[in-house]
């Protein structure tokens, strides 16, 4: 009987230790990710990477929030999206609220390779310190079986162009100058859908899977080349 209690005590101690380590890891991660950068890497550090930030899908949601926050921290903003009215409205709002310069580029990221010539022209001669790859879309607004969606062939291509091709091409455009300066920040907005099966959003989820793997590899490669 005593040996059974000893085993339970050991199990309880191990469980408590695991829970304690889990809590410490969670708190430590929060401090490292969200608090330390505010202390060690302030606005001056951010601006040292370049005068401009580029945000795709910048007129709503996460992209809009990034555009305003980066402007608040002292960067000029290039807003890229498909709705010119929304682009101009957000650009004026950023200039009014934060006193920074803006530039807008109107493109539809479902368009494929042909849209990137206009983007390259719009970014010419800008010192880009931050790129936020935020733009994204799905092929349905509700939970619907893949084969029940109308014109699904085109919608799949739209998802691939918008969610995958845009990240690769935008990175290709800004990366050379970042490497040349050995400074630059690229932020890729992904989705929790990339980490679990999504029966009614399978293509969307699949389009988000490459980001952590591909860009983690790119980051490691650039670090080995002394590019931060």
From TrEMBL:
It is an enzyme of class 1 (oxidoreductase). It comes from the Eukaryota. Residues 77-104 form a coiled coil. The chain crosses the membrane at residues 12-35. It holds the Pfam family adh_short. Its EC number is 1.1.1.62. One of its GO terms (biological process) is steroid biosynthetic process. InterPro entries: NAD(P)-bd_dom_sf, SDR_fam, VLCFA-Steroid_DH. Keywords: Coiled coil, Lipid biosynthesis, Lipid metabolism, Membrane, NADP, Oxidoreductase, Steroid biosynthesis, Transmembrane, Transmembrane helix. One of its GO terms (molecular function) is estradiol 17-beta-dehydrogenase [NAD(P)+] activity. Belongs to the short-chain dehydrogenases/reductases (SDR) family. 17-beta-HSD 3 subfamily. PANTHER family: 20BETA-HYDROXYSTEROID DEHYDROGENASE TYPE 2 (PTHR43899:SF10), RH59310P (PTHR43899). This is 17beta-estradiol 17-dehydrogenase. It comes from Sus scrofa.
